[in-house]
Design brief:
The protein has about 500 residues and is α+β, with helices and mostly antiparallel strands. The chain folds into four domains: about 1-120, 2-Layer Sandwich (Beta-Lactamase), CATH 3.30.450.20; about 125-275, Beta-Lactamase (2-Layer Sandwich), CATH 3.30.450; about 280-355; about 365-505, Heat Shock Protein 90 (2-Layer Sandwich), CATH 3.30.565.10. About 45% of the residues lie in helices and about 25% in strands. It is built from twelve helices and 17 strands. It has helices spanning about 1-15, 35-40, 55-60, 65-70, 125-140, 150-160, 190-195, 250-315, 325-355, 365-385, 405-420, 475-485; strands spanning about 20-25, 30-35, 75-85, 95-105, 110-120, 165-170, 180-185, 205-210, 220-230, 235-240, 365, 390-395, 400, 425-435, 435-445, 490-495, 500-505. The strands form four sheets. It has a five-stranded antiparallel sheet. It has a five-stranded antiparallel sheet with strand order 7-6-10-9-8, with helices on both faces.
Length: about 500
């Protein structure tokens, strides 16, 4: 009776335990399994009918098999987690990561009669560890390059090895438009199809098994994540998998996807910053090289001329210093000195602009008269360059400007026209358009390609190589800064082969 009592107690404990347990006979059949075992695999105990552990090819292929054999030999064994899927041996049930403890059950003679297995579902823990390993490796990949395009491609390709079947990256432009910049999937036809799909303008993060924008590609599941930098939205990243894919995207995938995209966003912005830094360093180095050359040329000329004059004086040769010849020498020296002075002024102005110390003394002026005076003073340079000047003025047009700084801007535009269109006609027009005073300088030079229209207003930049024209590449940058600080603007319109038109735009201020 007492034996039956303890047997009932054990059976009740075994069957109602929250821990999954199985007992195998020494011949390998499953003697009993409890309810927790059913819950573990989401199956029923009748699936164990005809099952023999010694015939389980899946288990034999796993490291855990060695522990099973040791248990049958009388040793208690603690097993490392393994992935076990009943479907692989033709049984109903879900695959899980299982951690197990196996103990032999011996008779009074010490012979193993059965083995008892305690099974623990560690799927969440193992998946979490795998997620962390995936993200750790992702960080290594992200940090392996400073090329922004490579970062997007590398992280997309890596995501398809673990998280999903395909990745789509849409970039958010400053205009608010979305542009598809990357599609990664092993099926090239799928890539082409996704590129052909219309980009959605919806910016909400979402997870949906049939996301509208991907319904045409029969995606089984997908997740969309904001692609963010430090302080702005860069675009959207969509991860998707096919209906029959083993890489199902679930709610668990959300935090992995979000963390991956967060790290990618930081790396992408770092790469852009690094790229801009490299460009700035290259521009600086080019500027220093050009500045050295530009300053060295007039200084060399002055040095050689003065060395020659000294030799003449030491030899008593005074013929070159007759009035007309001496006047020409002085004029030549002044031109060199003015060039040096202009270069130094540009360098000082760039320093003042960066420090916010560019000063203005504004006054109310009639702009057409101001422009005529500037052109008259600049006419000798235009004549020397063979540039025929045509003008058109409407008057009176009034505005408020710093005349010194504005003359600097106009002279810069005229100097540019001479540089790039020497020997060609130049037209200067002053007009009033919608309560705005405008001055346009049109040349018939080679023109500027569309991709360079804004770049020429940056520091140390030109539309063509520094080998073709002289100068520091600061003039247009300084000119635009002056205009912006005068409540105006400086823009350019150009067609390659048909010349360029630079336009000064200022608010009209009538006489009170």
């Amino acid at each position: 009776m007492q034996h039956e009592y303890y047997e009932k107690r054990f059976k009740a404990f075994f069957d109602h335990s929250a821990i999954a347990m199985q007992i195998f006979s020494k011949s390998g059949e499953c003697v009993v399994a409890n309810k927790a075992w059913e819950d573990l695999y989401e199956t029923t105990r009748d699936q164990l009918e005809g099952y023999n552990i010694f015939n389980d090819e899946q288990l034999k292929s796993l490291p855990a098999w060695d522990g099973v054999m040791r248990a049958f030999q009388g040793e208690s064994v603690t097993q490392e987690p393994i992935w076990y899927d009943p479907a692989k041996i033709g049984k109903v049930g879900r695959g899980r990561w299982i951690e197990s403890w196996i103990s032999p059950v011996k008779d009074e003679y010490g012979e193993v009669q059965e083995i008892a297995c305690i099974l623990k579902d560690v799927t969440e823990r193992c998946q979490h560890d795998a997620d962390l390993d995936f993200l750790s490796r992702a960080s290594e990949i992200l940090n392996s390059t400073f090329n922004a395009d490579e970062i997007l491609l590398n992280i997309s390709e890596y995501a398809t090895t673990y998280l999903c079947d395909g990745v789509v990256i849409d970039e958010l432009l400053s205009t608010g438009e979305m542009v598809r910049v990357s599609v990664v999937h092993q099926d090239k036809s799928m890539v082409e199809k996704i590129y052909s799909l219309k980009q959605t303008l919806q910016m909400q993060e979402s997870i949906d098994c049939h996301l509208n924008s991907f319904s045409d590609i029969d995606a089984g599941s997908c997740i969309r994540v904001h692609f963010k930098g430090r302080d702005k939205l860069l675009g959207m990243v969509t991860f998707f998998s096919g209906k029959n894919s083993a890489k199902k995207i679930s709610q668990r995938s959300r935090w992995v996807a979000q963390e991956l995209v967060s790290r990618a966003g930081m790396a992408y912005e770092n790469a852009l910053m690094h790229q801009k830094s490299r460009e700035a360093i290259n521009s600086r180095d080019e500027f220093l090289s050009i500045a050295s050359h530009e300053l060295k040329t007039p200084l060399q000329s002055l040095t050689l001329q003065n060395q020659m004059r000294k030799r003449n004086l030491m030899k008593g040769i005074f013929e070159p210093y007759e009035f007309e010849k001496f006047e020409a020498m002085v004029d030549s020296d002044l031109k060199h000195l003015m060039r040096i002075n202009r270069l130094i002024e540009d360098m000082l102005d760039i320093s003042r602009v960066r420090a916010g110390q560019l000063t203005f003394i504004n006054e109310h002026v009639e702009f057409s008269s101001f422009a005529k005076d500037v052109l008259e003073r600049f006419r000798p340079q235009l004549d020397a360059a063979g540039c025929y000047l045509t003008t058109s003025f409407c008057s009176p047009v009034y505005t408020v400007i710093d005349t010194y700084r504005m003359e600097q801007v106009v002279v810069n535009l005229l100097t540019n026209a001479i540089k790039y269109a020497s020997g060609s006609p130049i037209n200067v027009e002053v007009c009033l358009a919608s309560d705005r005073v405008q001055l346009r300088v049109h040349d018939q030079g080679p023109g500027i390609s569309q991709e360079h229209l804004e770049r020429i207003f940056e520091r140390y930049e030109r539309a063509i190589s520094s080998n073709e024209v002289s100068g520091l590449g600061l003039g247009l940058y300084i000119a635009r800064q002056i205009m912006e600080q005068n409540n105006g603007s400086l823009s350019v319109y150009s067609t390659q082969g048909k010349g360029s038109t630079f336009m000064i735009d200022l608010p009209y201020r009538d006489v009170e």
